[in-house]
Amino acid sequence: MRHNQRTPYESLAEMIEQSLGGFGHVQLMQAILVSLPLFFDAQQTFISVFTDAVPTWHCTDNDTCNSNSDICSLTRGSWSWDAPSDRTIVSEWDLECASSIITGLPSSSFFIGCLLGGFAFSTLGDSWLGRKKLLFLSCLAMSISALTSIFSTNIWIYSVLRFISGFFRSSIMTTALVLLEMVGKRWRGQVGIIAFLFFSLGLLSLPAIAYTNRGSSWKILYFWTSIPAIACSTIVYFFVSESPRWLLLQGREVEAMAVLKRFAPVHFDGLNSCLSVVPLQGELTKFDLYASMNDLFKRRWAVRRLVAAMALGFGIGMAYHGMLLGVGNLGFNTYLSLTLNGLLDIPAYFLTSLLIERCKRTTSILTFSIASGVLSILCAAVSKHKGIQIGLELAAFFSSCTAFNVVLIYVTELFPTSVRNSATSMVRQALNFGAVFSPVLISAGRKNEFLCYGLFGLVILCSGLFVIFLPETRGMPHFDTLDEQECQDNTITVN
């Protein structure tokens, strides 16, 4: 059989799209392996719900103590913890009377680490390190720092280690989603749900592990969540394939062709010959560090798009993380509350898949941001009616989760390959920046619930409006360079 006929392609994106148009078992396995680190990412993100909780206590001297007493006004001998003192960091390090800033410091440090790490790693996935190695490094370093947390002797060392864990964790979600670009655009949104599903399963596993070890030290929880994550990092390194788009843009054609042939349909021939006639518009060169971000900031349209997307992510990130971290404020069983919220993640992901396939991204984000904001404000307003409040909180979280999922997929479609990982990381950091404020608001919400759920609602309601400044991407092809993206946007504007 002869293969001397070349198929003309107008761009690199078109050639890759043709070769990755299907979705077979090899691509499914790749999607699962890429998504596996998100299971452990969820555990480390919300582990503080149990390790940093304020445990219950009881009186030992009924003459000076009763159930309504302020624990900070009692002598240490008149009361005792209900569980062993090493169950949480609060009881082990005598933080029951510390300020909300101190008790919330580890969680805030984790998200500050996520924020700074995101900026530090934002270009590495697009430049010399690549997507695969960045995913491996992030998962491994996050896991090791989490394991090291068990050797903390005070809250200051513990907070530093939580910061380091968050610093390296910051790029896991972004890199995993970008690595899913190796499927065709028809399947990209649906495959992204696999990543979200693993995150949800990791979240659901956390209360199960915590409940199983409820009589043990908080250090046990870190041990059982970090050791499997280290093993996961090894699997990623040896079995995950690098992005063919990134390899081609780095000038590594041989490796890219090997990956494309592995994922391409069996009848798709002539990839090597196709590459020789694909116009790359002079951008098939290796990147210098931060070159992709420098290129992005030179384009006014790209900067406007990035700022609007980050403003959108700030409010959604604050509400999403805050509602999960604040389940202890609802007055319900913490294990059950987090489980119910985690279970809602799963239908939210399937709804996201449906929305990605059938609805406009901008309309979906706006609708669910408004819904989450209104429901969250109502949740704060009915704090005396606990049954209604938990129902409103679950509905508000479901809406924020759906908006969160759509945004993460949407932002990968807003920018071309050359800056996709960098721009997605920036928006991801906006989500983390919103989460930085959540622990402080949750602490304040123990006295005034509007400062918790009410403020979450107002912020996501206002930030959701920024989506009107962003273009619709449903059904649009992925481009590999800023020039290609700009040309397409100009064409749409003219038409």
First-residue to last-residue Cα separation: 44 Å
Question: If you compute it from the alpha carbons, what radius of gyration comes out, rounded to the nearest whole angstrom?
Answer: 24 Å
Largest beta-sheet details:
2 strands, antiparallel
Biggest sheet: strand arrangement: 1-2
Task: Write a concise synopsis of the structure shown.
This protein has 495 residues and is an all-alpha fold.
Task: Summarize the helices and strands and which ones pair or pack.
Layout: H1 12-19, H2 25-46, H3 48-51, E1 57-59, E2 79-81, H4 89-92, H5 100-103, H6 105-121, H7 131-148, H8 155-169, H9 172-179, H10 185-212, H11 218-239, H12 244-249, H13 253-263, H14 271-275, H15 291-297, H16 300-325, H17 334-358, H18 361-381, H19 386-414, H20 417-436, H21 438-445, H22 453-463, H23 482-494
Antiparallel strand pairs: 1-2
Describe it:
- The protein has 495 residues and is an all-alpha fold.
- 67% of the residues lie in helices and 1% in strands.
- Strands 1-2 form a two-stranded antiparallel sheet.
- Helix 18 (361-381) runs antiparallel to helix 19.
- The longest helix has 29 residues, at 386-414.
- The protein is globular.
